[in-house]
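Cross-posting from the modeling subforum.

Setting up a comparison between two proteins and wanted a second pair of eyes on the formatting. Protein 1 (sequence, then structure tokens):
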Amino acid sequence: MAKLSDPITILKGIGPAKAKQFANLNIVTLRDLICHFPRAYEDRTRVGRIDDLELDTNGSFRATVIHTGKSQHVRKGLDIVRVTVSDGYRRLPLIFFNQNYSADVLKYGETFVFYGMLRQDRGGQCMINPIYEQENSVPVQTRRILPVYPLTAGLTNNAMAKAILQAMAICDAPAEILPPEVRKTYGIMDASRAYAAIHAPTSWEEVEQAKRRLVFEEFFVFSAGLSLMRAARAEAQAIVDQARRASNEVAEELKQLRKQLKDTADAQGC
């Protein structure tokens, strides 16, 4: 089992170069990665038919590959793969720019779930560079509520999501810091469930509960910090007051000593 303090380079697919990209987001350890929260979510749970797609709007559908053309080299820096899919009711052309591997992955007769924007061009409706996953694969970019993460140059949302899920699979979530009685009183989910739900929610209700937990945790830590600061300030003030009393006592003793010395000198006629 990995530790939260382990570097992200222990994850598959993250070498020194990729680690530098993560470091631009202050992500160095597995803890940093797991605590890198989404900025938004996309609902990709609804998988319909091609006819359900709306023009110029992102949507998901399930279809089978019925034709995959070979990669065509148009010019330097531009290769095109054309694929045709069918859901049994309607066909839809898919166009992939500079994704030659799609010609090998999208094999005839295999079924995938696609996500993208339906477009209209001179030849009719099509979809350009859609995201796709095999229908029986683990949902990563389709068939789920997809977290959308803060990113930096060179890092895709897919790369971030895969890294986070990989990290969560090999190490525990950050330790629980909320007392059981506090969680029970305020109906707050526990830490492990909250981190799982924030990165891989199964429902919008889970998203809201996880957000509530993490916001509550920040408020709790902030409040506890203020309490500690007040206690420390009170303790420091008590020390200052004690030192002031001691100083006053010493000053009084010195005053009495000087008076005694003066009285003794006067008595001796000095």
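Protein 2 (same layout):
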Amino acid sequence: MDLPNWRNRLPTRRGFFESRWEVEGGRKMKVVINRDWGGFGLSDIALDLLGIRYAGDIQRNDPRLVDVVEKLGKEAHGSRSSLMVVEIPDDMPFYIHDYDGFETIHEEHRVFPKSAGASESKDISPCVDIEYARKLERERDEARNKMADALQEVDLRTLDFERIKQELHAARAEAAKWEAIAFWEANANSLTKKRI
């Protein structure tokens, strides 16, 4: 008995969403994101073609940016970026989530508490809006930056400690050398007399 091949009949996750978009009207918007660690950036050629100075000076869904990235391909990528054009529904409110430069597009939505204790708190309403979530992300990023600065300071102090330790070792060796020279000079007459 032949069993049907269900794998070919079930839509993939991507196919499901694409078909849902087509049913809802089919209008799509293109957005440029970075798909590599390091951050969003444009090459000098792309910046010149767009007539801007910095990559942050242009909206990610700007048709000019999308066109430049599609036409230039890898030549549009910045030094630490790998750009990709993503199609999303035109009427979908979205934001670009950045994790150490690696970006994904997220649909804006309400966030509900994950634990029962969170809804009982006076500071957090049962439905947290997207601005509050973004505020929390900014605070998290600021905390990460402070931690990175602190770690860098620790690294610098460790390097200073190692440098001072090496200088102290060199100074002790130099002092021992001069003590030996002073000893030989002070005792040179007595040593030569004993040999004669």
